[in-house]
Amino acid sequence: MKNIIKYFALAGLGCVAFSSCDNDKFLDVPKYDILDIESQFESDDNARLGLNGIYAYNNVSKQDDSWGFKPQLFTGSHPTMDTQCTGWDVKFLDQTWDANVGELGQGWSHAYAAIARANLYLAGLENAEKVTPEAKKLCEGEARALRGYFYTWLATTFGRVPMLATGEDFNNTPVKAAAETYEEMWDFIIEDFSKAAELLDWTPYNNQYGRCTKGMAKAYLADAYMWKAFRCPDQAADCYAKAKQALKDIIDSNTYELSSNFATNWDPAGFWNKECIWAMCSDEGNEWSSWGSDRTITFCNPNMFKWFCACPENGGWGAEYLSWEWYACYEPGDTRRDASCATGAIPEDKLAEYGIQKSNNVWGYNPYLKDSLGVKDASGHVVAPFINAEGVQSGTKTRQFHFTNGEFAPAIWTTKIWRSAYADGNSWGTQMWAPVIIYGKRYANVLLDYAECCFRTEGENSPAGWAAIDKIRDRAWGNETIGKDYSAYYGHYNNVYAGNGKNLTMTSYPVGVLTARVSVPDAKAYYTALQAKPNRVGYKHTSPVWKVAVNEERRKEFNSEWSLCPDMIKSGYIEDHVNYNYPKDDGGDDYANYPWTKRTFDFDINKMDMPIPATELMKNPALKQNPAYAGKENKE
Fold first, then answer.
1. Which residue stretches of 200-312 are H helix?
2. DSSP letters of 371-432?
3. From 8's CA, which of 25, 474, 558, 575 has a CA 20 to 30 Å away?
4. Tens of pLDDT along 496-518?
5. What sign has the CA pseudo-torsion 102, 104, 106, 109?
6. What pTM does this model have?
7. What is the pLDDT of residues 431-441, one digit of tens each?
């Protein structure tokens, strides 16, 4: 797809716009050209430009330059334990987070800053006499969809939160209590997405991919109905029926489809494909804050995501790892695992000891960057671990189950994020910025949400529910790749190899491509057996087969994506997941050579509502702390 909005940037404060400027260059104007807030409603063009004041907060802004990775990874993935971490971040893995955690406060402030902009913008739009009805339709639809999106993050993270309405922000309404009921809160969000879905088209305005669309609004509308069903069980039947219809609308629109190869969703040439419904996209940064000739906004994300997610011995900072429990959950033939990670070169006898299937494709190797993981000698060979004369382990630390860099973490790194550029020292000069896409909603989300709604409305044997899961799995086994040409993906990597001085060339796609169809295990039969099988400590799933199936498929699809934990919570699966897949375990005495996660805490479902940030409780006396943390914020 050509015309892509990758990043929205806006200098100045508030929902500001420009009274007259070249539409292709409007992001280049200096601050002294910014006019008052009313000027954005002087014309249709200004009104559309004014939306960028809200869009700016979907990505990185001066308000919070870690938005997009923190707190989303910490609240959307780490509590599942499928993604893991070290350092201060560990509190999001073992439920020791509290009201003073900075990422939670920053996320709260960031979301409400975006909501404030949306509220002021919508208030001005209501009385904008110089804006045509057609432009108002677009502008209201996108503003409502964006407001609903930020409220969704707040509501799924913190539980009940204050619902600032059109025209309100914390300056003119500094004291406001959280919504009195979950029904009130989710109805507010549902109204925003319902209205947005009515006003917007399936294709984005002016073919600028990255703008809110009918598909985005309906996907989050269904999500909101499912959350309302979870929070308001007495209304669940009606909510699931409405969610199912919204998802069916998306499916029947034929606007979206699964990519033929799961892996290509994270390649730069695969961004904004037909599977993408809503995403945050970070470009390489060669055209900061400017329009390209193809009406594309390019704005670099200063988070430099690859360094957060790369192996430390390859130059990364190691803020994100994947667990061995996650790695071991895949069935033979499922290509999604190799598409999602690279592992340390753990000795084969150790893998066999724990029944872990080795993958030559990603074993000690990043197949996209064609680079081995670990400490290398002068000839480029990875140095095996050994004990030196001082009795200290030297050589690579990636050849053990748990990499240690002061603290243990699984020797598995996501290639959904660490894929498009090297993280070594040479990259600081030539490849600092790696194109990265962070998905909010893919068509795969729609299919699995639809499957859940079918099971809840039609029963555990719903043909449509199992068919949606089977569609996901057929793609996962690679059957859609046969005969496809993937050469369009080679160019980026060949440039990366050349830029880093490597004499390499990509001539075939490295992951997931088949030459002949394979048989995919029947989902219902597989998950029926899994549901009845005790784990290594004798615990059996307490969830019905369909719920195990939907959520285990979510684990395989959405690792390192921010939807995973919220989806497990709204489905009522998160506690069963942790107890089954991560039984309490002290990790043994030799954690480096032991794969399974060290869990010593008892899972507390009440902590899935994160604590209201302590700073917000001080500023807004109408707020009350969530029950799992009440009375604790001043004791930390």
1. 214-231, 236-253, 305-309
2. EE-S-B-TTSPBPPPEE-TTS-EES-SSSSSEEESSSEEESEEETTTTTSS--STTHHHH--
3. 558
4. 999 888 899 999 999 999 999 99
5. negative
6. 0.91
7. 777 888 999 99
